[in-house]
Structure formats: C-alpha cells, structure tokens
C-alpha cells in the first residue's frame, strides 16, 4: 500500500513524501513538489512491483545485451572448451537480434518473439531448425543470463525463467538388428583400416562416445583389472568402463603391437591426434548395405541391446554415463519383457498362495 505525507519546510515550501509498502519487498520512498506527481509515482511503482518490473538494478540500465554476451564469451566459455565453438555461434545469433537492447529492456515476451523466429529459420545447410536445436540455443542464452544475475549482478532475475522451451522429440533410436550387426562387423573386418573392426567392437560393447573412444590413452586402460577410466566425458564426471569378452581380447592383442611414439590407443599419422575413421566406417556401411546409420548410433545399439537383455534404465544410464534417466527413457519399450517378468514375479509372491 502507498502512503503520502505532506511536509512544509521552515521556508514554507510544500512537498509530498511517498512510501510504498508491499509485503516481501523493500520499502520504496520518493519526494515530490506536486501531489499529482506523488500519486502517479505511487500508482506506477506499486503496479511495477506487483508485475516484477520495478527492481531493475542500475546495472541493468547501464549494460547492453551485447556487453553481456561478449563478456560471457570472453570469460566463461574458455572454461567450457568442448562447447565453446557451438555456443559462441548460438550466442552470436541472439546478439545479432537483441544486441542493441539494454538488459533492463529484455523481457520474456521479447525473447519469445525471437525464439519463434529462430524456430522458423533455417540452418546453414538449408534445413529447418528442429525443436532440439532451438532448445540448445535457449540453453546457451539461459546460462548467460544466470551468470549475469548470480555472478555479475547485472540483473535481479533472468527473463528466461518465464520463457517456455519447445517440446523435443523423444529422440532417435536406431540400432542394428541381428542381420545388420553381423553384416556390419564382417564389413569392418574386410576394411583396409586394421583398427576399424576393433574400434566398432569396443564402441558396441561399451557404449563409449566416439570422442571418448578415440581419445583413449594407454594410461587410461588397465588390462590387468579389465577396465578403462574415462577422465574427459561429456557430463564432466569420470566413468569406469568394463572391458570384457571379445573387446578385451582385441585390446590385449592391440597392446602387444602398440606404437611407442604416442600414448594414444588409436593415433593417426600425427602421433598427437587420434585416427579419423569416418571414411573407413562409411565404406563399411556401404559394403554391408546399411543405411540411415551413424557412428553415434553404435551407442544406441549398446543401450538397446542392454535393454533387450534385461538391464534396467538405471543400469543403462550408468553404462552410458548419463546423470539422469531422462536420456535413456527412449529405450524403455525395448525392456518391456524384463518389466513384465518383474511384475509377474511380484504377483506370484503376493498371490501365489490364493
């Protein structure tokens, strides 16, 4: 509620002091020479507080959107080397549309306007942006605002909190059936690249990402205790990968003929960089007559085979290195048989004596 008190100085000058009190907010005060100005300020201030518009800091009125993005790219993205290039491109898109605005003028409705424009736009390949792509652009922007709020104190709150993300699809699940898997592995064996078969086998047996697999060093591998430690993973956590069966046998044989000019398991011509298997892999796909399949789908294969062999979603998430179950729910339908057997077992124990 607002209160207005009239004051008269010793010189006889009249002024009006306004106090706006709303529960949960600091008291706001101001003085005016005219009563009409005092009433207008009280009315506007109270409305702005209720609508969340009043507590725009002086910093938000001093800094532009461009300044925020440039500082984030300069100071924050170097700490995220894997994402730096992609997020720089995403943030530059936002900057090209919102750069001239003061941070105090960036509203949820303004972001929604350009979110929708982003969704209608095309990629550099000339294809329409998917909802997942729009979500990634929004995630980059959201974190930028979060840093501006929490660390730089340029804003009281992030306008992204009120902006809804587009709904993503459930995700691609492309895995090799039995015939395709046999053909694929046979084609890899016939490859002119001696390491392709071993790398594909390791990928299928472990669920490692391509970058994790190709970046392996011998110091990460324990052939004695049959495991690999992944230090540099996508989510930032170390992950232990079991080495078992045929993959272990192949790696044991590979260790006996390892190159001594590098610690990489699969070095290229440059001993400091891993080998590029894109062409041999694509050639093997052509030979096996397999379409609509990419290297990353080997990881889907691992998850799918685990699900079909009775692994729980939590176990699949642990193998793949996911922190939550959200990413592995796409494989839930493949473990229906396992779920049914669990329910059947429970029912047998509960109702077996009836």
Number of domains: 3
Assembly state (oligomeric): single chain
CATH homologous superfamily of the largest domain? Intergrase catalytic core
The CATH class of the largest domain is identified as Mainly Alpha
CATH-defined fold name of the largest domain: hpI Integrase, Chain A
Measured between the Cα atoms of the first and last residue, the distance is 68 Å
Tally of DSSP β-strands: 6
* Overall pLDDT: 87
Short summary of the structure?
Helix 3 packs antiparallel against helix 4 and helix 7 runs antiparallel to helix 8 (196-206).
Furnish the topology, listing elements before pairings.
Elements: E1 2-8, E2 14-20, E3 28-32, H1 35-50, H2 58-62, H3 65-75, H4 81-98, H5 108-120, H6 131-150, H7 178-189, H8 196-206, H9 210-214, E4 221-222, E5 227-230, E6 239-242, H10 245-255, H11 278-288, H12 297-308, H13 313-320, H14 336-351
Antiparallel strand pairs: 1-2, 2-3, 4-5, 5-6
């Amino acid at each position: 509620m607002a209160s207005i008190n009239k004051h008269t100085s010793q010189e006889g000058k009249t002024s009006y002091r306004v106090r706006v009190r709303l529960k949960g907010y600091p008291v706001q005060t101001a003085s005016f020479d005219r009563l009409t100005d005092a009433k207008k300020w009280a009315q506007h201030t109270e409305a702005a507080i209720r609508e969340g518009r009043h507590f725009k800091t002086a910093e938000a009125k001093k800094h532009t959107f461009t300044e925020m993005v440039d500082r984030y790219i300069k100071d924050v993205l170097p700490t995220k080397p894997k994402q730096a290039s992609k997020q720089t491109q995403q943030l530059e898109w936002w900057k090209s549309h919102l750069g001239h605005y003061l941070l105090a003028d960036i509203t949820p409705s303004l972001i929604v306007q350009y979110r929708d424009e982003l969704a209608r736009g095309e990629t550099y390949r000339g294809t329409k942006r998917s909802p997942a792509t729009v979500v990634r652009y929004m995630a980059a922007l959201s974190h930028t605002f979060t840093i501006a709020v929490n660390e730089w104190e340029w804003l009281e709150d992030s306008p992204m909190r009120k902006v809804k993300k587009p709904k993503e699809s459930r995700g691609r699940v492309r895995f090799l059936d039995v015939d395709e898997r046999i053909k694929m592995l046979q084609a890899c064996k016939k490859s002119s690249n001696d390491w392709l078969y071993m790398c594909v086998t390791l990928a299928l047996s472990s669920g490692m990402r391509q970058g994790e697999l190709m970046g392996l060093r011998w110091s990460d591998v324990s052939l004695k205790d049959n495991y690999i430690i992944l230090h540099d993973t996508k989510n930032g956590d170390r992950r232990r990968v079991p080495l078992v069966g045929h993959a272990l046998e192949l790696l044991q044989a590979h260790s006996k003929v390892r190159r001594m000019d590098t610690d990489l398991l699969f070095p290229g011509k440059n001993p400091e960089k891993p080998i590029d298997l894109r062409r041999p892999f694509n050639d093997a796909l052509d030979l096996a007559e397999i379409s609509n399949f990419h290297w990353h789908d080997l990881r889907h294969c691992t998850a799918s085979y685990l699900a079909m062999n009775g692994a729980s979603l939590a176990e699949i998430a642990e193998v793949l290195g996911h922190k939550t179950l959200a990413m592995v729910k796409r494989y839930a339908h493949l473990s229906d048989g396992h779920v049914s057997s669990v329910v059947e077992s429970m029912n047998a124990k509960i109702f077996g004596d009836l």
